[in-house]
Write a structure and sequence with these properties.
single chain; about 325 residues; alpha/beta; 2-enoyl-CoA Hydratase, Chain A, domain 1; 2 domains; 14 helices
Amino acid sequence: MNYLDFEKPLSEIEGKAEELRALARANPQMTVEREAEALDRKADQLLRELYRTLTPWQKCLVARHPDRPHCKDYVEALFTDWTPLAGDRGFAEDAAVMGGLARFADAPVVVIGHEKGHDTRTRIERNFGMARPEGYRKAMRLMDLAHRFRLPVVTLVDTPGAYPGKGAEERGQAEAIARCTLKCLEIGVPLVAVIIGEGGSGGAVALASANRVAMLEHAIYSVISPEGCASILWKDAEKMKEAAEALRLTAQDLQKLGVIDRIVKEPLGGAQRGRAETIEAVGRAIELMLKDLVGKKPETLVRDRRQKFLDMGAKGLAA
């Protein structure tokens, strides 16, 4: 288990409980179960207290936890007949965005999502989930495919933001993000999105301009990262905690503002402590969102989706 900075007291208690059990395994004559169970109860109480009072910055840390389930985990668990499709038919394949055809609840869909990777090799290969222009152009290609064959689109968003490198900018990063966002608003099929970890900047919006947007309880979704915001406003990246407060990037704040439609509850201690339970909850949310949209006319889906985003400004001003 990887512990976050604010979980250090918890790591000490759980570590002591495990040490006692390790001693008992080495020496079966030792009776330590009562002491270990007392430590377990203390750890459970502390865990509840910590996660009941998470600050926006602590939620950022939880959303970035390396042990949270990533896009690939959801695809493997929730979808069948997965057929990945690669390349933007213009420049290259971008491993930071995965997409393809699959079945969800035995119905054909197109799935697109950011993938961060799970170890050093795959994180480098996936560019830590930061897509280049070709990743967004691949997403547009798949959305066109979905529109042509009347297939619902499911997107899974988990990115710090689009890749800001020189090559990406030379190949039209801003234009690719803008066109991908526009494509989301144009397709005449149901489009549902789930923010499963980080929803960073336009890199997230490009896949999340959907009819229905769900967000995991401890995920984040914002116009910029707290560190980037702090660097711009205060010229000091160390003020990221203040920036996280000001950005209103938590699921709870965003639901009040009308930016997202539903919050998917996470297990106690975050998705990283209950991966299977979290994936199952996301699957239920996707099913409910699609059920609400399937069967609607293409023009209705497009009109409602556009109106949803036009209304956000009014709701935000009212809040």
